[in-house]
Amino acid sequence: RADLKKAKVFLKRAPNEIRINAYNPMIMSLHKANMDIQFILDPYACSMYCVDYISKSENGMSKLLREALNELKKGNNTVKERLRVIANKFLNSSEISAQEAVYHILSIPLSTSSRSTVFINTNRPEDRISMIKSDEVLQKLEPDSKDVFVQGLIDMYINRPEEMKNICLADFASVYNVSKKQTNNVQITENSDDEDVIDNEIDEKSVALKMKNGKGWIKKRTKKKIIRFRNFKLHQDPENYYREQLMLFLPWNNEEEDLIYINHEETFELHKDLIRQKRSEYVHREANEFEKAFEEHTERGNDDDIDDTKIEYDQDKNEFLIYETGNNEGDIFVEMGINTRTGKVEHFNVPKMIPDADYQQLMRSLNSNQRKYTLNVMNLIKDGDKQFFHFINGGAGVGKSTLIKAVYQSILRFYNSLPGSNPETIRVAICAPTGKAAALIDGMTLHSFLSLPVNQCKHKLVKLDSDVSNRIGVKLKDLQLLIIDEISMVGFTMFQQVDARLQQIMKSKESFGGISVIVLGDFNQLRPVGDKYIFQFNNSYNALVDNPLWSLFQLFELTEIMRQKDDKIFAIALSNIAKGTMTLEDINL
User: Under which EC number(s) is this enzyme classified (predicted)?
Assistant: First the structure.
């Protein structure tokens, strides 16, 4: 005796038919292939059967998971971390068949439709979105014109000709096409809302009618479009439900007068027979049937009407992997609400403003060239309209570090003097390629400041995740100037990475993201590690033209030695050593 909780069909079979699938003789003669059909008595079970096919799991272990497991075996990850890695592989990748992969690569549509569809936005006017006309069209309008939006389906319906005054919106959208020009065969236009057109669906015998506003022609179709709309629920939003029925299935001319400022339920009751008759032409089976089936299913249990044990699973090991999500891959722990952050605190180390007495002493210690350059930069900063790029060249002891401090403190004082300024805002950043050089100027390394990769020899800069980029961008939103010391140690690759990273963080395609840059250094000192000089190229063909980034920079040279200014002879000897031009006097010294 079977324990049945719902209706189920049992086919009567002869003993010799035990191993034969259920089939239909008429379909078999046409299909000429294997068949396994069942009677469907439960809408919910039918839905579950389709979902099982869509979301079926792979029994065989894919190459992707095998690689992930091999990587985990090499490390000392905890069980929780292993689970996270494997789960993220499922979350961020998709396995498909070879045939589907070919369809995607060749951009072949996976499905086509014999009927066109059109969406009718039945939301209230304030909840609809309109598209602005192109710049070319807007420039031709009168300065006080309010006709700035592209004509939509509802606008076309309102401007239908008098001959169509008794046509409802559903019929207008489904039965008619709108064209900008009057032709013998009105083609589908950008405003027709068609999605798929298999053949010519325009009625050749129909006459094109001109719209009231003269902005198009209306012609009848031979095939109706399938309409889609917001579909408000009566039990959830009665007012909008009645308004939507009136809007779709009853003719109207003025939306405010006929649909907004009225009693929707009373008007619906007055015309309900006409509305239901017209609605039956477009809504053949109510969408809430599946909702009712779901409720019935939950009441009686989880038994299905369909035997899903015969669903075949592909165990081919040569899977095609697509849809890598890039830098914004999902994290299964984040989806589950598990905090995975390590508590790391980002800190931008920038020098603070020194006391006024120290600043005055600093400015008095500058020589003529240093003072002139500081004033020049201050004028550029105060104007604020033009981006600038400066290269301060000078040998050892000419006061480059002192100049950096003077420029930074002067700019800091200027911005802090502005009304409403925040002293914690980062306006100027000081960086260097190494930690030791950065410590000498109270700055940061370029790697930590811009999150650059430590190994720059791969010549590939991976974009920051969106959250990291936005977090740094918020910190540096007011950045105006970047100062880089020891530029001789910054190679071609790192310089390109600084430019690319600033463009990403500042969300600007301008050089260095629109930030002004001052670089200082002496190319007779230490050179880049594992890279070309900043003004050279890694590619021999690129050497035929100038480096586009380095060519932006204007040269300023410091020649007066400040470190050994009391011993000029010794200072000159040190300079000659760096240049390799020592004299006999220098050697004897």
Answer: 5.6.2.3
